[in-house]
Amino acid sequence: MNLEISVIRKREKMENSITKVEPKNIEIKPKAKLTIESMVHNQEFLKKAQDVLGQGTQQFMSSVLTLVNSDKNFKQCDPIKLYNCCLMAAAIKIPFNQNLGQAYVIAYKGEPQLQIGYKGFIQLAQRSGQFKTINATEVKEGEVKSRNRLTGDIEFSWIEDEEEREKAKTIGYVAYFELLNGYRQTLYMSAQEIRGYATKYSQSFKFGGGVWKDNFDEMAKKTVLKRILSKYAPLSIDMQKAIEIDQSDGDKSYPDAPKETLNVETFDAEEAEVISE
């Protein structure tokens, strides 16, 4: 009995001699959310953009911020994808300033999307040095004089009076180019064919929204121009890239019109996380 009491007392002394450590609340700081604003000021992103754009890097970063602040819907987009959309346009030297009409970066159902405008395709064609003339325009009712279905030749009789032409109904769209070597080509699509094309290749058009609703004429001109270039024209490296990245979300996907894999080097999410740390 005395032995048991002695053991208990020794155990009590040992427990009392141990310093008790009270649990403390350890504050774990959440990882900073990656934003366009943080990316454009990050030195690693600046360096990578510098490798692609050279001296135009600062202007590019400024344009990205201007774009993001122009539409609150961009705040809902993945910043990496949005940044890549802008970078892909800048890499082929096509400004994504909405007012110029050469390239547009838009938000579609929470996803960014790069749209190369018809003026952008014209700019790239002229830059290649192989084109003497290139253009796309709407066709008004009464302007198609004849159409040879065998040869594909179309003869137009254009309305000269601009006011009269403006009032006339648009029945189609036509693209035309002539190369310096004399080769020329014309591609015409009726308004009905254009709508059928848009219905097939644009999800937003099916539901009456998106860039087709806001800029139907621009998109129609782009459609005939892009088709004639991809089918009949010699394509520079930049033109090939423009056709590939058109309608891309900046991450090798096409939210409005699914396509094949995009073969353009971009930043990915894992790389961005490393850079932002």
Physical arrangement of strands within the biggest beta sheet: 3-6-7
Mean pLDDT: 81
- Main beta sheet, described? 3 strands, antiparallel
* H and E string: HHHHHEEHEEEHEEHHHHHH
What level of helicity do the residues show?
A: 40-55%
Any low-confidence stretches, pLDDT <50, length ≥5?
A: 1-5, 18-26, 260-277
DSSP strand content: 15-25%
- Strands, total number: 7
Gyration radius, to the nearest Å? 30 Å
What spatial form do the alpha-carbon principal axes imply?
globular
From the N-terminal CA to the C-terminal CA, the straight-line distance is: 65 Å
| Count of DSSP H/I helices | 13
The chain-level structural class is alpha+beta
**What's the oligomerization state?**
single chain
Write the layout of secondary structure elements.
Blueprint: H1 2-17, H2 36-40, H3 43-53, H4 57-70, H5 79-91, E1 103-108, E2 111-116, H6 118-128, E3 131-140, E4 144-147, E5 154-156, H7 162-167, E6 170-179, E7 184-190, H8 191-201, H9 203-206, H10 210-214, H11 216-232, H12 237-245, H13 269-276
Helix pairs in contact: 3-4, 6-11
Verbal overview:
It is built from 13 helices and 7 strands. The protein has helices at about 1-15, 35-40, 45-55, 55-70, 80-90, 120-130, 160-165, 190-200, 205, 210-215, 215-230, 235-245, 270-275, and strands spanning about 105-110, 110-115, 130-140, 145, 155, 170-180, 185-190. Strand 1 (about 105-110) and strand 2 form a beta hairpin. Helix 3 crosses helix 4 (about 55-70) and helix 6 packs parallel to helix 11 (about 215-230). The radius of gyration is 30 Å and the shape is globular.
